[in-house]
Amino acid sequence: MNYSPASALARGFSSFTKMGKKYGVEWWILVAGAVIVLGIVFMAAFPDIFTTFNPYDQAAGPQLAPPGGEHLMGTDNLRRDVWARIVFGSQTILRVSVLAAIISSLIGISMGLLSGFSGGILDRILSLIMDSVYVFPGLILAIAFAAMFGPGVINITLAVSVIYIPTYFRLVRGQTLSIKQELYIEAARAIGASSSTILREYIFPNVIATTVVVFTLNVADAIMIEAALTYLGLGLPPSVVDWGMDLAMGKKFLPSGQWWLITFPGIMISLLALGFTMLGEGLAEILNPRLLER
Description:
Number of strands: 0
Number of domains: 1
Helix content: over 70%
Strand content: under 5%
CATH superfamily: MetI-like
Largest sheet: none
Shape: globular
Radius of gyration: 23 Å
CATH class: Mainly Alpha
CATH topology: MetI-like fold
CATH architecture: Orthogonal Bundle
Distance between the termini: 36 Å
Structural class: mainly alpha
Order of helices and strands: HHHHHHHHHHHHH
């Protein structure tokens, strides 16, 4: 049997189109989101491929040069190349948003499993705490924690992660309460399986799939929250290359016609958030059992 690169590519393309026919528009939403996200992730991972300028270089070109020539997106008031700051700024916003979603998912999932499985007074206490946090608007809560923690990459990551913990907790707790009543859980108890084994082997695998969808959507939201906090002066220090920081520094030049200082960072923030949102929405539809029955 011939396993040439051409035949492998043809089989891969055939499988790709079959998925498109099976899931319809949801598949293409997923693919579009994945292309956007992977493209920006690749840019963040290999910035030197995309630009030769240093984002901190204050002699990169003329001051406030418009887009064009060797400066694809122009320069700012400190003569730094805007495109270079876009490329390297992707590292910061991805690091903060993804790490914040990881921290919140680890804490929220663990607490949700423990609360739903244990029940009793522990469940009531944890539910009360999580509900109290959940009722606050996300941005307002993030502003409060950011003001309390102070500026910095780690501090802003923690401030953003706090607001998503109740989301994972409520989702996982509800599913755990339902799953622990199933017959196979009773059978596991009957054969002497410990509580930790039941949680690890029987309950956790059944709740993790839905949290993947929530994770991608939370990353999209965290991108907007991080940019908003930095724009308000509560997020990252000016020494950090970040899209939200470039928005904050460029807004005062908009009335004088230097539109590119906020336009390109704003587009990139919206594009990255859109990519994760499309990825999450596509996964949500494809993983929906009712969709698979159509």
